[in-house]
Amino acid sequence: MSEAVTGGLPDKRRVAGSFSRAAASYDAVAELQREVGGELLADLPDLAPARWLDLGSGTGHFTRALGARYPQAEGVALDLAEGMLRHARPLGGAGHFIAGDAEHLPLRDASFDLIFTSLAVQWCADFAAVLAEARRVLRPGGVLAFSSLCVGSLQELRDSWQAVDGFVHVNRFRRFEDYQALCAESGLQVLTLERRAKTLHFADLRELSRSLKDLGAHNLNPGRPGGLTGPARIRALMEAYEQRRTERGLPLTYQVVHGVLRKEE
Fold first, then answer.
1. Which helix H or strand E contains 55, and what residues bound it?
2. Are strands 250-262 and 138-149 parallel, antiparallel or unpaired?
3. Architecture of the structural domain at 6-153+172-199+255-262
4. 156, 147, 249, 141: which is closest to 189 by C-alpha?
5. Is residue 5's pLDDT more than 70?
6. What are phi and psi of 128, to 5 degrees?
7. What is the pTM of this model?
8. Pick the residue with more confidence: 194 or 206?
9. Could you give phi then psi for residue 241, rounded to 5 degrees?
10. Among candidate residues 45, 4, 10, 243, the one with its CA nearest the CA of residue 142
11. What DSSP character marks residue 46?
């Protein structure tokens, strides 16, 4: 199956640079990442891996969680962003910290029993390649557990910008139906695959925008406006977004995909 959204996803070098710059601030604002990754850990089947991989390991929060959960296993953390690896390496959790690309893993065939990747593969334009690489490096019976984002994420921000101008201000994500089709065609057994909505609330637009920037997840798409956004457009955005305010604040919803797949014995 072809990736219909390949041309619309951000360049990986831009993604790596953005997340490297965000390494120091990331954990302080990573409420969504902690919650989603914790649920993914809870989704894992009963395993006793000899070797596990934290793919897109970021600041190493879940690297350390995996290390604590499987203390007898050998752990490997892999991330595209060198800045994240420099931040995570002194904190431990894994025996190896490697710079690498999920679409071209620098790892041997059949060398892992578990691949855990939370909120990282949405930045990969070729998710079929991610699945193929996971299948290649997993041992028979090994498990891939992933969480990602799909269409519908950041919809409140997208809709508010639509009331202002026609530029691409919000990151694009692939459809949930694409995840379903690509997983079905991957050669891996799909144990679970579902979509869960997560809504965060912010006091104002400044706080919301800062959270995206501190996470390294601000707008990285081709077609985004160049230069600074003018004050008139910011005021128009604030007025449009304020119409969506609830008692809890300004909402920002993420559509989170959870998948657990197994390589056949």
1. strand 51-55
2. antiparallel
3. 3-Layer(aba) Sandwich (3.40)
4. 141
5. no
6. -60, -40
7. 0.82
8. 194
9. -70, -35
10. 45
11. S
* Alpha-carbon span 195 to 19, nearest angstrom: 25
Rounding to the nearest 10 degrees, give the CA dihedral for residues 90, 94, 96, 97.
-60
Would you mind telling me the total number of residues written for the chain in this entry? 265
Q: Using CB atoms within 10 A of its CB, is residue 5 exposed (0-12), middle (13-18) or buried (19+)? A: middle
Section 224-242 average pLDDT: 74
> With left for phi above 0 and alpha for psi between -120 and 50, is residue 59 left, alpha or beta?
alpha
Percent of the chain with pLDDT over 70: 80
Amino acid letter, 192: T
pLDDT of residue 233: 81
Tokens of 176: 């949930």
Strands 96-99 and 112-118: unpaired
Would you say residue 179 has pLDDT above 90?
A: yes
Taking the domains of the chain in order of start, what are their residue ranges? 6-153+172-199+255-262
Question: What value does the mean pLDDT of the chain take?
Answer: 85
196: helix, strand or coil = strand
Tokens 């290649």 -> residue: 136
- What are residue 104's DSSP bridge partners? 101
- Residue 218 CB partners (closer than 8 Å, separation 6+): 18, 209, 212
Question: pLDDT at position 23, please?
Answer: 47
Q: What distance in Å separates the CA atoms of residue 204 and residue 148, rounded to the nearest whole number? A: 26
- Scan for tokens 């490096």, then name that residue: 137
